[in-house]
Amino acid sequence: MSKKSIVVTKVCEGHDNPIAELVQVACKFDSEITLESDNRKINAKSIMGIMAFNPSDGMSVDIVTKGDDEQEALVAIENFLVCE
């Protein structure tokens, strides 16, 4: 399991539909990917979960990944949420 705490920045600026695009990034990996914030945990591969979670600028988020490609998944989700 890998875990990293980040602060979401500029996620909407670089993407036309950031919610759908975040799910697409997550679905590229076999690992389980969970986003956690304020006692909420959602599956990053769930469009409905991401819509309810609504990652926005300044939000503190823990990215938790578990599986064979967990490091790659963690980096990809982090890069998406901090627009790198």
Automatic annotation (TrEMBL):
The gene is ptsH_1. Residues 1-84 form the HPr domain. The lineage of its organism: Bacteria, Bacillati, Bacillota, Clostridia, Lachnospirales. GO terms for molecular function: transferase activity. Its EC number is 2.7.11.-. This is HPr family phosphocarrier protein. PROSITE patterns: PTS_HPR_DOM. It comes from Agathobacter rectalis. One of its GO terms (biological process) is phosphoenolpyruvate-dependent sugar phosphotransferase system. Transmembrane segments: none annotated. Keywords: Cytoplasm, Phosphotransferase system, Transferase. It is found in: Cytoplasm. It is an enzyme of class 2 (transferase). It comes from the Bacteria. SUPFAM superfamilies: HPr-like. GO terms for cellular component: cytoplasm.
